[in-house]
Amino acid sequence: EVQLVESGGGLVQPGRSLKLSCVASGFTFNNYWMTWIRQAPGKGLEWVASITNTGGSTYYPDSVKGRFTISRDNAKSTLYLQMNSLRSEDTATYYCTRVKGYIHFDYWGQGVMVTVS
Amino acid sequence: DIQMTQSPASLSASLEEIVTITCQASQNIGNWLAWYQQKPGKSPQLLIYGTTSLADGVPSRFSGSRSGTQYSLKISRLQVEDIGIYYCQQASSTPWTFGGGTKLELK
Questions:
Q1: What stretches of A15-87 show up as alpha helix (H) in DSSP?
Q2: Nearest C-alpha neighbor of B85 from the set B18, B40, B24, B20
Q3: A22 has which bridge partners?
Q4: Which of A74, A92, B27, B44 is most buried (CB neighbours < 10 A)?
Q5: Contacts of A2 in chain B (CB under 8 A)
Q6: Contacts of B36 in chain A (CB under 8 A)
Q7: Residues in chain A whose beta carbon is closer than 8 A to a beta carbon of chain B?
Q8: What is the pLDDT of residues B7-24, one digit of tens each?
């Protein structure tokens, strides 16, 4: 069974940093791209960052580029999101997702809440 | 960026009714379109990818189609467990973008 378990969320002041983790199990982690997607309270879904299966390439929307860094440790089957210079508009539930094909998200974690205030 | 415009924003329907949700892309995205369902208090789940392909375990009452740059999700016979918010997502080019969502409720 595929499982994605996020951790590391919490309350943080504007301008500070936070690092999210996602431990994957139930599949061969190093075969898949991975992605972070967020959802502000009561709002829709926003793509945040993606990383190739080897970690060799990363992708970001302009809203987080230069502030967020996605990375992975394939030996530990763990995905990370380093978030710097946090803003109130980064307040959201962050989901770790597995990428299937080109490009959709077939498994989602339970989500972790980040509050910037 | 490619904009994905979903309609309606909310929808109330009866059990066993046919429900259709549409998603308009601001430019050509081919068949690079996915649909997700988010039940109350839960994480989103993949329903359909590649415009028409059902994800594993998704009931056959769900189907997807395309006409030009307009994409549709159809539920052939609405069930109680189908209540939630539905999102489309384009996978044609970055930034990968989602529609604003359609909230489906029971009448």
A1: none
A2: B40
A3: A6, A79
A4: B44
A5: none
A6: 45, 105
A7: 44-47, 50, 59, 61-62, 95, 100-111
A8: 999 999 999 999 999 999
Residue A107 Cα distances to A26, A69, A104, angstroms: 11, 21, 9
- Could you list the pLDDT tens digit for every one of the 117 residues in chain A? 999 999 999 999 999 999 999 999 999 999 999 999 999 999 999 999 999 999 999 999 999 999 999 999 999 999 999 999 999 999 999 999 999 987 899 999 999 999 999
Other beta carbons within 10 Å of A77? 17
Length reported for chain A: 117
Name the residue in chain B with its Cα closest to that of A105: B46
- Would the CB atoms of B49 and A106 count as touching at under 8 Å? yes
Contact between A45 and B98 using a beta-carbon 8 Å cutoff: yes
- Residue A98 β-bridge partners: A34, A107
- Cβ distance B32 to A110 less than 8 Å, yes or no, reads no
Min Cα separation B31/chain A (Å) = 10
Mark B59-97 as b/e (b = at least 16 C-beta within 10 Å): eeebbbebeebebbbebeebeeebebbbbbbbbbeebbb
